[in-house]
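Batch 3, record 17
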Amino acid sequence: MTVTEQEIAEYVGRVRAALADLPAAVREELTEDLPEHLAEVAAEADGSLLDRLGAPEAYAAELRAAAGAPVRKGWNLDQRVAAVARRIGGGLHTVDARLGPPLGYASATDFLRLLRPAWWVLRAYLAAMLVTVVSTGGSLGLLPRFGGELLAGLVMLVGFLLASIWLGRRSARLRGWRRWALHASSLVLVVFGLAGLADAEERAGYYPYDPIAVNNPYEQIRDVFVYDSEGRLVQNARLFDQNGNPIRLGYPDCLDEQDPYNANPLLRPYPYCPAQAPFAPRAPVGPSVAPVLPPLSGPSGSATPEPTTTPEPTITPEPTVGTDPGATATATPTPGATR
Amino acid sequence: MDTTQLLKGVLDLAVLAVLRDEDGYGYDILRRLREAGLEEVGDASVYGTLRRLFAAGLLTTYVVPSESGPHRKYYSLNAAGRDQLARSGKLWRSFATTMDALLDERGAAA
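Prediction for the assembled complex:
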C-alpha cells in the first residue's frame, strides 16, 4: 500500500475545508465515512489519492452535487468578512501605489516607512510627557519633568528614546499579545498627543501673547507718595525707569485751578495730591536736609521757577509741611545736585 | 450528449440496483457500476449518493472487519430502499420506453 494514513487525513481535511460553508451537521454527515472509504480506495489500487481521485476540492464539489447538498451560493460570515477585508486591502493597495509617485517613491508605504524612526522619537517624547502629566498632576509644559524635576525629566526622555528605538527595531518580530500591547500603547500615546495638542491650541487661542497685561497691578493706583528714610513725605518726586523714561502712574484728580501743570497733568511730580497722603508726615528733623530729586532736564526747565508758588496754596491747610515746600524751593536752583 | 448529464438523474437508481442482489462497500459498488458500463461515474459521486441514500433511510450499513486492509463499511438495501428501487425502476422503464418510441418514430435510432 502506497497511500499512508497521513495522506488520507490530509485529503479528508482538504475536502472538509472545501465544504466549510455547509452547516457543521451536514458536513459531518457527508464526510464521517470518508476516511474509511478513502482507505478502501487506497487499498484497491496503487497510486496516490491525488492521482486517482483528483484534487480534494474537485472531489468535494462532486460529493456536494451527488449528495444533494446546497451548492456554494452564499458565504458564511467569516468568509464575507474576509472578502470585504480583501477588497479593502486591494483598494488600499491601489491608493498606496497611486500616491507614491507624487511623493517621489514607488508607493506611499515606501515613503511612510522612512518616517518610522521619526515616530519612534515622537513616541518616546509623548511617553515622557505622559509620565510628566501623571507625576506632576496635570501641569504640562513643553519639556518633560519627572515629579517637577526638569533634569530627571530629560534623563527619562533619553531613556525612553533609547527604549523606543530599540523597540522599534524589533517590533516586526513581536507576535501575539506583545504586538497587540504595542499597538494599544501606541494608540494611547497618539490620543494623548492629540489631546495635548488641542489643549495647547486652546490655551494659545484664548491668551494670545500680548505685552499689555490684562491684570495690571497698577490699575488701581491714583497717586504715588514717596517717603524718605525719616518717614517724611517727599514732595515733587519723579519716578524713572531704567531707561530714564518717566513712570506715569495714576491721575491728578484733585484739580487745582492755579496749578501750572494743569496744561499737561502728566508733567506733574508726585504726589499729585499731597493732602491725601496715607501716612501723616512727621515733623522735619532739619530745615534743609530734606532730600530732593533732581528735576527733569527737559520739561522741568520751564517748570523750575514755578514750584515756589505752587505747593504753597495746596499745602497751606497743613501747617506741619510748611517747611517742605521751602526746602524744594531752595534746592531747585542747583540742578546738578546728585541724590 | 454527455453521459455524466444522464448519470446525474439515474445514479440513485443505479446504486440501488447494484445493491439489490448483494451488499457492497463503497469501492466495491463503484467497481460494479463501472463493470456494468457506467465507466464515467466518479468516486465522489458514488460516495455522495451512498451518503444521501443512507441519510434518506433507504440504506443500512454495517462494518466488516478485515484482516488485510481497512475495515469496510457495507451498504445494504432495507425495505424502504427496495420499495424506492421498485418505484424508481418502474418510472425509469416507462421513461425509457417513451424515449425509445420517440427515437424509433423519428427513425433516429442507431
